[in-house]
Amino acid sequence: MTDTFTPPTRFAVPGRIPVSNRAAALWQTATLTEIRRETPRAATFRFAVPAWAGHLPGQHLMLRLTAGDGYTAQRHYSIASAPDDSGHIELTLDHVAGGEVSGWFHSVARPGDRVEVRGPLSGFFAWPGDRPALLIGAGSGVVPLMSMVRHHRSRGLGTPLRLLVSARTPEDLIYAREYGPETTPVFTRRAPEGVPVGRLSQAHLTPLLTDPPTDGWEAYVCGSNAFAEHASRLLVAAGQPVSRIRIERFG
Amino acid sequence: MNVTRDFTGRPRVHNPGLPPGQYDAGDDWPVLSAEVTPELSPADWTFRVDGLVAEPRTWDWDEAHTLPESAYEGDIHCVTSWSKFGVRFAGVSLDAFLAAVRPDAAATHAVAYSHTGYTTNLPLADLTGGRAWIAWEYDGKPLPAEHGGPARLLVPHLYFWKSAKWIAGLRLLDHDEPGFWEQNGYHARGNPWEEQRYSGD
Question: How far apart are CA B129 and CA B18, in angstroms?
């Protein structure tokens, strides 16, 4: 009676990380401490959240803004910072045209402002650093993947990790200064001299999937739905098992 | 109440159809699934109902289409906080499938599962009484694969993660059993009007 029913199917990826229900249920005050511009459209917002219970790379939170008349707006955002950033979390937000939450952050917010967050949420896209990780992101889809890269780096993990990140131009590449040899940027509109222009292709994946680490890759794909569809199809075509692809789509 | 400095939000349009904490997505229909979109043709699609029933049964595409057609026109609500108004789905009421298998009196819950392996749990009462469908048309056209086509479960009065895409079957149980997102921290029932988003809400 207590066994979980498992359907007779291909996608049998279990939830990776048990989620703390208590943390997910609780709204906490987050105080903005710093704003860093990443690209003309994206900025990183650093918050002090003293009672933050911690998170795993890849998890997200829900953020809520409240107007004077009690109206609230809430959105899901991926966490950009590594778990070891004690008492602080960072979010990197695109300035969405007409976006009521991202618009407030990009036009109004300043250090000292307070908002509310609850989380971390969802253990499915989380990566604790245990298995070789092949990370594929586009645009601000790189945000939860960067949390994984930072975690890998700050803990000095030996687990194989590769990041393919797609951006329109070099100026649009979020976290450009932070990438190391684990990262291959892909530019779709304009690239630095000597770097080809073009979307993510089989040529990027073939070397990684024909010579995978022992036990293979755990693939994490994050970006727009169009990008997620494209990247996940490439992965399947290159031989990555469907049951080891995790997707986070930015609707 | 923790008022955010200089936050006014969108102009308020009173919409009694908008549950708390939701916004109107307008023409957008975001795709939110953690899986690779399967290539599943109508010829390969089947739908099974078993568990605590008198006669377990599997329908293929053509058999399911012999059941009386039933449409839903109304709203849908995603836990990520968008709602979409006035959508039109067509398919078959789940009541028609359940009548054929005759659920046991002991059946109280169901696990819905997809051809991909995704699962979600529902009280049986949320699947009966004309409140749930197997849907294969959206806005008069075949349901797109990324939205669960060829056929998905449709339970529009609950958050939309309950409306399993690429539906493959229902197993009727005498107890509740958390599905994929429910094991990942989401609420067991997911009623948007009570903001049952996460476990503990």
Answer: 23
